[in-house]
Design goal:
The complex is a heterodimer of chains A (109) and B (116). Chain A is globular, with a radius of gyration of 13 Å. Chain A starts with a strand and ends with a strand. Chain A is an all-beta fold and 109 residues long. Chain A has a six-stranded mixed sheet with strand order 2-10-9-4-5-6, with no helix packed on it. Helix content of chain A is 0%, strand content 47%. Chain B is mainly β. In chain B, strands 2, 4, 5, 8, 9 and 10 form a six-stranded mixed sheet that branches. Chain B is globular and about 40 Å long. The N and C termini of chain B lie far apart (39 Å). The interface between A and B is medium-sized, with 27 and 23 residues.
Chain lengths: 109, 116
């Protein structure tokens, strides 16, 4: 199985802050990495696929980068609507399973 | 606009089989551009991928308990999870994944509790 880790697990930030979340895979997943945002009681929302491809309708303040085993999600200027939990997911190989990271909660400082 | 709606029992007894169906509207499960699958989230915990229609490889931790099937005649797909235990208690989401992309359309989720 491919294990995914995220850091930090919780992040306290203010509106306007630049926020970076890191996701690491236990082995290379090439660029087969997605990022999701989830708010309490709601289904997750896809933000980014293929490590850096922004989903249609997602604000440009969100960006993704990385390849292989290390990836980042950056929010350039945090908005009130961005306080949520963020998950990465690798989808490199069916035989390894498409693992999610444990999540990073972004809350208000 | 594509919509997904989960249906099935909210309570399942231990050792029995959990069966859920996802009804698809506004699109077709026959499209070769998409896979149809399931993801779950135990209460207060993170997301867990179960599997999708792109492969019979499912989550290794669920071993051979999972079956995902697509019914093109009814435009729906389903999940069967056998020999359930309390650890299978979760919110279950059905979802669509475009080939090569992350999961872009999700159902609202359905809560399944495993208890006698």
């Amino acid at each position: 199985d491919i294990q995914m880790t995220q850091s930090p697990s919780t992040l306290s930030a203010s509106v306007g802050d630049r926020v970076t979340i890191t996701c690491r895979a236990s082995q290379s997943v090439s660029r087969w990495l997605a990022w999701y945002q989830q708010k309490p009681g709601k289904a997750p929302k896809l933000l980014i696929s293929k490590a850096s491809s922004l989903e249609s309708g997602v604000p440009s303040r969100f960006s993704g980068s990385g390849s292989g085993t290390e990836f980042t999600l950056t929010i350039s200027s945090l908005e009130p609507d961005d306080f949520a939990t963020y998950y990465c997911q690798q989808y490199n190989s069916y035989s390894e399973g498409f693992t999610f990271g444990p999540g990073t909660k972004v809350d208000i400082k | 606009q594509l919509q997904l709606q989960e249906s099935g029992p909210g309570l399942v007894k231990p050792s029995e089989t959990l069966s859920l169906t996802c009804i698809v509207s506004g699109g077709s499960v026959s499209s070769s551009n998409y896979y149809w699958g399931w993801i779950r989230q135990p209460p207060g915990k993170g997301l867990e991928w179960i599997g999708d229609s792109g492969s019979t490889y499912y989550n290794p931790s669920l071993k051979s308990r999972v079956t995902i099937s697509v019914d093109t005649s009814k435009n729906q797909f389903s999940l069967k999870l056998s020999s359930v235990t309390a650890a299978d208690t979760a919110m279950y989401y059905c979802a669509r994944r475009p080939v090569g992309y992350g999961t872009d359309v999700w159902g609202q989720g359905t809560t399944v509790t495993v208890s006698s």
